Every structure is written in structure tokens, then in C-alpha cells.
Amino acid sequence: MSIGSADYSDGTNPEHALKYAVQRVRGGRAQLIEGVIEPLSLSWAHETVADSLRHQLGTRASDLHCVIGSGNLDLPGSPNWYVPDLTVAPAAVAKNAGSLRPDQTLLVVEVTSESNADTDRIVKRRRYAEYGAPLYLLVDRQQRALTLFAEPGRLGHTRITGPLPYGTPLHLPSPFDLDLDTSGL
């Protein structure tokens, strides 16, 4: 029985309790990775990569009536609550949402750090596919490469572009139809 489908007649539900707790961590933001609370502490080098992508996606996201942010993503029925580096989501969906599900986004971007690279490469890759994120862009700072995962399914994303070394343009498919300049990452 999964954590999200159990009957907790006494009103306690471990998934809800964990997700409630992680949203109230003092001193900053945190996420749940397979039930473990992980505080977020991002370097300026990490933020510079995310900012470059945000600027490149900005006009197209606006044209699509979307917002770009790093808001919370809930993975219902699992002990996961992610805070991706960037998410592009329809403005109408995000407007009043405390969190979104990956399938409510158009693009999720994770930028690796030394401390979380394997989580972004393995765990989040699997979970984003399982929860229907249409596009997952992994920017691997340690390997200086980008990989785009598309067409999610139960067994993972079925279309993979990359890894492409920094400096190689990366085409984002519909609805973006945009080439990302990766030379400045």
C-alpha cells in the first residue's frame, strides 16, 4: 500500500504531515526527496545558470501566457515535495496555486549542484516522468552538459536529447519551439 492510499482513521497521514512540515522549515526553503527533508542552499554560480535560462525563456513563456518560477511541485501519493530551479507553467493554473503537480507544467528545469547532482540525474528524472512533466531539462553543471527528457510515461521519458555539451544549442520542442543558447552557461 502506498503512503498516499492508506486509511488513517485517526486523522494522521504521514505524507500530509511531512509536506506540511517541509513548507514551514525555518530559515529558508526545503524539499522532500523520497521522504527526507533537504534544505536548499544555492550558490551564485548555480543561480547564474538558472537566471540565463529564465531570460531566454521569458518572451516565449509570456507569449504562451505562462509564468516562470521556482514554486513548489507536489507529487501526490509519494513522500516528495520538490522545489525545482525553474518551472514554466500556465499562468491561469499557477495564479492561485500553493503548489502544482508536474503534469500541470510545460517545463521543469533542474540545475545540479555538487550536493544534489545524483538526485537530479536519477530520482527526480524518474519521478518527473512518473508524474507527467512533459519536458524535464537537466542542466548538469558538473558534467557541463544538458539533457532534455520528453514524452513522459510510467517507465520514464521516452524521448531524450543529450547529453549535449555546453555551447551546443538545445532545441525545446512545442509549445516552445525555441533554441536555447548554452554557450554562456
Alpha-carbon Rg, integer: 16 Å
Helix fraction, binned, reads 25-40%
- Just name the CATH architecture: Alpha-Beta Complex
Number of strands: 12
Report the CATH C-level class: Alpha Beta
Structural classification: alpha+beta
Shape: globular
Give the termini distance in whole angstroms. Answer: 43 Å
Query: What number is the mean pLDDT?
Result: 88
Whole-number tally of structural domains:
1
Considering the protein shown, what is the CATH homologous superfamily?
tt1808, chain A
In terms of DSSP E residues, the strand content is 25-35%
**Strand order, biggest sheet?**
3-6-7-8-9-10
CATH topology: tt1808, chain A
Q: Which residues sit in consecutive blocks of at least 5 with pLDDT less than 50?
A: 1-5
SSE pattern = HEEHEEEEHEHEEEEE
Give a short account of the largest sheet: 6 strands, mixed
Number of helices: 4
